[in-house]
Every structure is written in structure tokens, then in C-alpha cells.
Amino acid sequence: MSTLANPAKPIRALSSAEKARTPVSMAKTDLGESVVVSRYEDEIWDFWPYIPQNNARDSEKRINWRIEIAPGEFLTDHQHAPLLESTKDFTWSLFIDPIDGRQRPRMATVIAHVVALTPLLRWMASRGMRQFRDIEGRALEYVPIAKINQRTGKPTAKGWHARRLIVLEELYLQREKLADALPTHPWPDESGFTLSGERAKGRTIKTLRIPERTVRQLAEVAINYVTNLAPHILSTRDALEQAVANKEGFQATNIRIPLARELGFEGSRDLSAELSYLRDSCYIVIAMFSGIRDSETLSLKRGCIAHDKADDGIDLIWLHGTIFKTGIKPHKWLVPPIVETAVRVMEWYRQPYAIQIEEQISQFEQQLDMSIPGSTFHKRQLKRLHTARKDRDGLFLGCAPCVGHLVGVLSKSTIHRRLQNFCPHFNILGDDGKYWRLSSHQFRRTYAYFVASAELGDLHYLREHFGHWSIDMTLLYTSGASDAYQTDTDLLTEILRSKTEKQESVLHNYLMTDAPLANGDIMLADLRQTIKTAKNKQSLLQQISSSITLNGTGHSWCIGNAKGTSCGGLCVFEADMCVDCAYGMIGPEHLPVWKEIALQQQTALDMSDLGLPGKTRSQRILNKALDVIAKLEIPQ
DNA sequence: ACGGCTCAGCACTTGTTTCG
DNA sequence: CGAAACAAGTGCTGAGCCGT
User: Taking a C-beta distance cutoff of 8 angstroms, is the pair A221, A280 a contact?
Assistant: First the structure.
């Protein structure tokens, strides 16, 4: 990766000519030579060499200084030259000479600062201010302006007001490093946060968890594509491709369409739509059953699946990838077999694109050889070469129709749009009866919830896919990997959080209501009473919840195992043990299970060939089950 | 062989989660 | 808790595929 020379002189000490030629971003060629990508004087500061994320687009990796600061007027216009220079100075200073006490920001953050600064520039233009120092004494006028969303005229989203105001404070903090800045604090007795009235407290997680019913529908569709439809769709694609090789125009069309119809599709268009849904399904399966983030999914490469044997001989499947949050680190995730299937399908899916991208790479290499270093063409092809090389092993390859058919890893906005379209197309609904609005991060939360459910033993759906975690994988995760790949401990934290939440809600039902109990009433009676009279019920509930560990057996909740007391977990196999156990709780949610148990034992008893010991056992279990059912069915 | 349509990127903005 | 990083959303564009 490229490095920037740390200038010996601070920005304000540079002459205009010196400053103009200063590189702000650089890249390396194959020969190891550094090539300047952007200079201070450029209209666009392109930071592509510094932002590795595959899921970000080029446009998110650069600053375009041609900001429209008034209708028809741009920051790059001649009359705004001083303001442009001040803005560039400030922006560049944030990176090259960070605010005292702060770490050097990532380039993406620097770009975000410019975004937050834009409304200020517009306001300044509208007031005829040409320099930041003109703001002095008038900063408070800007406060209400900064609260308004420029596009809609409505108040800005939470956090943005503060973010826009904080930029002014930073203009003050950097004052000694800049020729033009805020000489005095914009609001001496306040901070951007207090001014905006947006305290950072009380943050809650907003990303929705996909409801169970919706997950089931989604999983059904996606798994069907990945396991059943994939071979047909992909082999048809390949067959068509082969049949039209070396043919063009209508000749190709005349072959393609009848063949597609012959193979069970409505036409060529239908086939490509199905191909896209197949790709969406792979994305969904991978995200849903591995819990990885969007940026991580899109950075997956071919061959990212590895097998491994646990000590007890269980086959483990690892998904290898990269985590970008706070630096680029190789990571691995434990995944169920369906994820491997989806990766294999994508490896097939990407093959034609892989061939194309290799062709593009050699084309770029040739063009680079023949062009003049430093020319715009040379720069552009250098960038395309770097990008293509980075993407050449990518799993989620696609093709951009409007940029010269460049092949590369799909962007997050494409994935996002495709996900939004997925539920309506397959008629997948949320609990409110409307189409579920799917987005990429929901999968992470949903995954954590389902894994927690699997661990608590009350997972109803998709058990075989989430259950792979239940064999106490926590140990495997934390005891660490021996290879270069780290495990994703954040995901583990997420799962634990989900588990705690679930446990709390289970206890909530037991303690806050008078739901009938078949067992556990003695243990809970006191607690129920305490809770009823407690002032702060919620915090008491949390306190109780954090002091015990629930284990789901399917037919009861067991709080005994963790303490090494009671049955030691045998109740998982011998349901009737829980009925009298001091550490068991049996409530309304277990009623169907107990009915099933009763039915089974009755059937067993009806069979004549059951020996006496067997009969005794069945009778014992049946009696207890009937007892449980009777208690749970008492009208409240 | 031509008009409609689709799909993915671009540009810009807002929103959310996690790090130190 | 503030800063940083990551994610989502939307109008627009246009190349070129698709199918009559």
C-alpha cells in the first residue's frame, strides 16, 4: 500500500506553489514506484488506495471539491478560491496533523468531515462570507440552519445536527495550524452536543431482527435456490453460453431463446432473472447462517471454506474472510454445511466473470505499458488495474453495464437494492402482513438470536442450520485458532447479548404474570411476590436474570446445571425428572411438548409386547405428564 | 433492427453500531 | 462517552441486452 510523505513543514508554512503540488494520495505500480494519484490542487482528491473495503464504491472513496454551494455556483469557481483553499487546508490538516489528543483518522472519516462541512459552506455562501474567520461572532446563527435537512427541509436525522456543529469546533481547534480558521470558540460555554440537544445516552440498537416466521420463509426460498435450483440454472447458463459461442447479434438470440425455453425457462431474460435470485439466495444463506457483516460477505474470496476436525472428531466448517472494522484482519467463522453449499454455488456462478476479469487485467496491463506515466489515462488504468486485481478472486462478482462493462465485486448498494426487492418478489411477509423490508445487517442480529435460541434449546425452526453452534462452540471460539485467522469474538458477544435478552423475557413471563406452572412454583413464589411489591420491577428482573443461567430442555427450563446441582443435566433425556426437580420450571410454553410425551407413553403402553419394566416406566412418565398437563390447563 | 427495459454504478445524504 | 466506522436509502444515468 502507498504511503504519504509526511511534510516537514506545517500547511500554513507552505508556499501556494509548493502546496498545490503536494500529493494527497499515492499508489504503487508493479515496479514498486510510487505514483501520485491526487495532488492538493486537484479538483478531486481520490483516496482509493487507502480504503480497502470491497463494498464501498469509488465515489465513496474520494472528495469532489466541485461542491455546489449556491444554485449554479461551485466551490471550485474562481470567485470562491479562498474558501476552497481554506476548506482544503482544514480537511488536509485533519489527516496530516490531527487535532491534539486524537488519533489520525481514516480517510473515510476525513471524507465524512467534508460531508458534515458542506451545509456550513452553503450557509457561508448565502451570507457572503468568503473565509472561515468571517464566521466569528455569527456561529450561533448557523445553529438553527444546521438542524435542517437541505433536501427535505425537515429537521435532520439524529446525530447530524451535532456532527455539523462539531466541525466548527474543529475549525477552532485546528486554528494554529491553518491560515484561515475560527480564531475563537464558536460557542464558548457550550458544545456541539449540548447545543443540538442530542445527548449520546440511551442508545438502543435499531436494526430489526427478522421475525421467526419471516426467517423461515426466507430460508425456505433461499435454501431451495441454493440446494435444488442452482444446478439447473447454472448449467443452463453454461449451455447457452457454449451454444452461442462465436455468434453475435440476432444469430445468438435465435439460438439462445429457444434453447432457454427448451430447458424450462420463459426466455433468456427469465434465466438471467433467476440467476440473480440465485445469487441473492447465496448472499442470504451466507449472511443468515454465518452472521457475518455485509462488508465481510462481499470481501469473501473463492476457496474461502476450510474443513477442520474438532478433538472429538466432529467435522467443523470454517469460513475464512476479512474484517475491516479497525484495520484489515483475517478472520474465520464457524458455519453450518448450507453455507458451504452456498459458497460452492457462488464459485460456480462467478466462473464466467472470473474469465472476464482476467481478460480485463491483461488488457489494463498492456494499456499501462503503452501509456505515458502521469497522464490521466495512465492514472485511470492504474486504478482499474488495482481494483481488478483486488477483485479477481472475489466471490460475489458482477458486471457494471454503465461503466464499460467492468467486472468486479458487487457494491453494497446493489446488494441492498436486491434485498429490498427479494421479499416482494417471493411474497415474504413480516408479522404485520406487509412485505418484509430486508437489509443486510438484519441477518447478523437474527443469526445471534437464533444461535442463542439453539443454545437455550427452544429453537423451533431451522434447527439443523443453527444447531451446529450448540455443541458448545463457545469454547472452540474463545480457546482460539492456531492459524493466522482470528475468530470473530464480536459475534460471540452479540450471541451472548441475545441469550441474555431471551432469558430475561422468559423470566419476565414467569415472574411478572401468574401463568400456571407445573413445576417451579415453590422456587418462584417468593420471587413473584418480591417483584410485585418492588418499586423498580425491570431492574430487579434484570438482576435476577443475570444471577442465573437458564438452560432449555425443550420440556422445561433448568437452572440447575450451571451450579452442578440437581440432575446434572440428565433431565434433557429423562423429561419426567424435571417434574419434581427443585431447579426445574415448567410453564405454559411447554404444554404441547408434554401432551406429545403423554401421547407417546400411552402408545407405548398400548403395545402388548412391552415388558413389565418398560410398562412401569411408561406408566410413571405418563402419570407425571398427565399431572403436568392438568396443572398447566387449570383456567386462570 | 429497433424500442423498451433492466441492472448496476454514481452522487449525495441520512442512519446505526462499535471502538478506544 | 465522543469519535470513528460501517450501513442504508434514493434519484438519476446510460450501456447494451432482450425479444418481437
Answer: no
Task: Note the pLDDT tens digit of each residue in A484-520.
Answer: 676 676 777 777 777 777 777 777 777 777 777 777 7
How many domains is chain A partitioned into structurally? 4
> In this structure, is the CB of residue A265 within 7 Å of any atom belonging to strand C?
no
Closest CA to the C1' of B12: that residue is A115
Do A165 and A291 sit in the same domain of this protein? Answer: no
> Are A550 and A627 within one domain?
yes
Cell of A262: 427448451
Contact A341, A333 (CB under 8 A): no
pTM higher than the cut 0.90? no
A104 touches strand B (CB under 7 A): no
**Is A383 inside any structural domain?**
no
Strand partners, A323: A329
Is residue A587 one of the residues assigned to a domain?
Answer: yes
Is there contact between A183 and strand C, defined as CB under 7 Å from any strand atom? Answer: no
In this prediction, residue A226 carries a pLDDT of 92
Least confident segment among A113-122, A146-155, A509-518, A564-573:
A564-573
Is residue A93 located within the same domain as residue A170? Answer: yes
Q: Indicate whether A241 pLDDT > 90.
A: no
Average pLDDT of the segment spanning A277-288 = 90
Q: Which of residues 341-370 of A touch strand B (CB under 7 A)?
A: none
List strand residue ranges (DSSP E) for A378-490, in order.
Answer: 397-400, 406-409, 486-487
Say how far A346 CA is from C20 C1', in Å.
Answer: 33
- Looking at beta carbons, which pairs linking A524-530 to residues 24 or more positions away fall under 8 Å? A524/A585
Q: Which of residues 252-271 of A touch strand B (CB under 7 A)?
A: 253, 269
Instruction: Indicate whether A27 and A165 sit together in one domain.
Output: yes
Residue A344 CA to residue A349 CA, distance in Å, equals: 9
Q: Are residues A116 and A32 in the same domain?
A: yes
Rg of the Cα trace of chain A? 31
Is A326's CB less than 7 Å from nucleic acid strand C?
A: yes
Which amino acid type is present at position A116?
A: A
Domain that includes residue A586, residue range = 513-631
CA-to-C1' span, A519 to B19 (A): 45
The answer to whether residues A225 and A187 belong to one domain is: no
Residues A76 and A216 in one domain: no
Is A234 inside a domain boundary?
yes
* A616 Cβ nearer than 7 Å to chain B strand: no
Same domain, A31 and A82: yes
